[in-house]
Specification:
Helix content is about 45%, strand content about 15%. The protein has helices spanning about 30-35, 75-90, 135-155, 170-185, 195-210, 260-270, 280-295, 295-310, 315-320, 335-345, 345-355, and strands at about 45-50, 55-60, 65-70, 110, 115-120, 225-230, 235-240, 245, 255. A five-stranded antiparallel sheet has the order 1-2-3-5-4, with helices on one face. Strands 6-9 form a two-stranded antiparallel ribbon. Helix 3 (about 135-155) packs parallel to helix 7 (about 280-295). The longest helix has 21 residues, at about 135-155.
């Protein structure tokens, strides 16, 4: 895999000719970066387009065109280089990705003032969730993820011997989390509709966990592990019309149970606002995934069970709101919290959609 040979440079004075919308993300040091990419021309603007926990993204317009500039917040050059190498090799196999552009020294990781940056081609496209996909397009989506998994097997070092699984959530820990979050939700003044819904869902979840605690997946029940994208969802897939143009954001590339990524992605793509899954589309998607990867019905069934249990014990949105005071994920809560309840009620129907 490629390794970075770029050394960190001291901070430079404020860069000229940068137009950046207000953001908490620091403006990239364009002077230093552009000297590494001689083909870029002169900068025209640099506007933030994405801000997450793992990176900040900017649309960089220059006299030679538009590019996506990514600031990797974790600064792990080895992991970043692994991601870059993976996407370069996937592109050679025809997988729709947007590999980074190398600098004058051939390196794809630019380190300036201790910060890691990467430059990618700008991909014109749009995001499409499951409601915007037909059954035929859902089938193609499942096949696409299957291609990603099978091609990663070809281009990455062997996953054999790697522990890609994790122990399933302990309901005793979940009960403690529920109590903590309930206390925080009830203490808020003034309370709003979100707080009322949060309290209702937490009480509901406690009842469900008490009823289904015996169904916790046992250790060793996880499906086959392999290299996965790690964050496959609508905001990380760009379409041009009906065709996928690029799978982006490979920050969570890792060895994990592959079928679990397939089920987890479907639960994001195909969830309706009321928390129900569009099972006809999920069925088409799952059949295409199984056909492409050769995954068996038993493997998908195990993944369905483990992801269902994961959702039943998942409180990350409420943790963000009440413990981290971060409300960015609040809009996802109504559908996500309803999904856990609906999935529990319709467990057999969901299992049939993925594993029949």
């Amino acid at each position: 895999m490629p390794r970075s040979s770029v050394s960190a440079e001291p901070a430079e004075p404020a860069e000229p000719v940068v137009v950046s919308r207000e953001t908490s993300a620091p403006t990239p040091p364009l002077g230093s970066l552009l000297r590494r990419y001689a083909f870029l021309g002169e900068p025209v603007s640099c506007e933030p387009v994405a801000q997450g926990l793992l990176n900040h993204g900017f649309r960089l317009a220059t006299t030679r065109g538009d590019y996506f500039l990514k600031h990797h917040l974790d600064g792990d050059r080895t992991a970043i280089a692994r991601q870059h190498g993976a996407t370069q090799r996937l592109a050679a196999l025809g997988v729709p990705v947007a590999p980074p552009l190398p600098g004058a020294d051939g390196d794809t990781v630019a380190v300036v003032d201790g910060r890691c940056y990467a430059l990618h081609p700008w991909i014109d496209g749009s995001h499409r969730d499951g409601a915007q996909l037909t059954e035929a397009e859902s089938l193609r989506l499942g096949a696409l993820l299957g291609v990603v998994h099978t091609c990663l097997d070809q281009v990455m070092e062997s996953a054999a011997g790697r522990d890609g699984g994790e122990l399933s959530a302990d309901p005793r820990d979940s009960f403690e989390t529920i109590d903590e979050l309930l206390l925080l939700a009830r203490r808020r003044h003034p309370r709003d509709a979100f707080d009322v819904l949060a309290e209702h869902r937490l009480l509901e979840r406690r009842t469900l966990l008490e009823r289904h605690a015996h169904r916790r997946p046992p250790a060793g029940a996880e499906p086959t592990a392999g290299w996965v994208h790690g964050d496959f969802h609508p905001l990380n897939l760009l379409y041009r019309g009906a065709e996928p143009a690029a799978i982006v954001d490979w920050d969570r590339l890792a060895v994990q149970p592959r079928a679990e990524e397939a089920v987890r992605a479907a639960a994001i793509f195909f969830v309706r606002p009321d928390g129900e899954l569009e099972l006809a589309k999920a069925r088409a998607y799952a059949r295409a995934y199984r056909r492409t990867t050769g995954a068996g019905k038993a493997e998908l069934a195990a993944a369905v069970h483990r992801v269902w249990w994961e959702r039943l014990n998942d409180f990350w949105i409420l943790r963000w709101r009440y413990q981290l005071h971060d409300r960015r994920a609040d809009p996802q809560f109504p559908a996500a919290s309803a999904l856990a309840v609906w999935w529990t009620k319709e467990y057999e129907a969901v299992l049939d959609a993925f594993a029949s």
